[in-house]
Amino acid sequence: MALNITGDPEADALLDQSPFALLVGMLLDQQVAMETAFAGPAKLRDRLGSLDPAGVAAIDPDRLAEVMKQSPAVHRFPGSMAGRVQALAAAIVTDWDGDTSAIWTRGEPDGAEVLKRLKALPGFGEQKAKIFLALLGKQRGLAAPGWREAAGDYGAEGYRSVADIVDADSLAKVREHKRAVKAAAKG
């Protein structure tokens, strides 16, 4: 199944083709709209000429920050997010030999192990790791035993996160769920 997160077929195609792009989109998914976050990797690729972990890890940090700041900016906080993207790329190069998908494929890990590996990445806390695990399971064909349990509520059927977005209707349902959660938290 092709991803349909950004509303931009070219940006979604990159997410489909590049596990690193998908991971970067998830990293960027904070304090901006989901579509903006997941369109970020395509902007980076277009501006840098390619988007691979080794290239991003090796680029001059000031240059990456400038690329992120170009209009339209890749993120609302381009400077700090440039550092996070570069740290993520460096971790992929150092810990996974530049192969992003090895995080969820090397050694046939179960869901709990994939979650542990994701949480070890720079910029990935518990919630972000669970959402990405659910995205892998629901839309990328991850068959790791126990992935739904490891992803917690995000692994359940419904419209909770980016893992559940397949079209404009599901995007609207995810947004409504997020609004309801925020309203309930306020009180």
UniProtKB/TrEMBL annotation:
GO terms for molecular function: catalytic activity. Pfam families: HhH-GPD. One of its GO terms (biological process) is base-excision repair. InterPro entries: DNA_glycosylase, HhH-GPD_base_excis, HhH-GPD_domain. Coiled coil: none annotated. Residues 24-155 form the HhH-GPD domain. NCBIfam families: HhH-GPD-type base excision DNA repair protein. This is HhH-GPD-type base excision DNA repair protein.
